[in-house]
Structure formats: C-alpha cells, structure tokens
Amino acid sequence: MGYLVAAFITVWLLVTIYALFVSLRQRKLEQDVQMLEELVQEKLARGE
Q1: Which domain holds residue 22?
Q2: Number of structural domains the chain divides into
Q3: What's the pTM?
Q4: Alpha helix stretches (DSSP H) within 1-48
Q5: Mean pLDDT by groups of 10 residues along the chain of 48 residues
Q6: What is the spatial distance between Cα 37 and Cα 29, in angstroms, rounded to a whole number?
Q7: Cα distances (angstroms) measured from residue 8 to each of 18, 21, 33
Q8: Local structure of residue 5 (DSSP, 8 states)
Q9: CA–CA gap between residue 32 and residue 30 (Å, rounded)
Q10: DSSP assignment letter at 47
C-alpha cells in the first residue's frame, strides 16, 4: 500500500511540475506575440 501512495504522490508532483512549465512557457510566448504586434503596429504607423 505504501508503494501505491508513493506512486500517486510522484505522479501528481510530475503533473504539477509539467503544468507549471507549460504555464511559464505560455506566458513567454504571449509576451513574444505582444512584442511582435507592437512592432507591426509601429511599422504600419510609419507607413512601411
């Protein structure tokens, strides 16, 4: 029974770590998209 509890805790820790990693990566991608949108707007404003 102890192995089952240890496996359960391990799986949930791995899932939590993975979810945090995905969340951080998504935040970085959203920042990149925002930066690109601003660059496009600047170029459009300048008429390029």
Answers
A1: 1-48
A2: 1
A3: 0.72
A4: 2-46
A5: 95 98 98 97 89
A6: 12
A7: 15, 20, 37
A8: H
A9: 5
A10: T
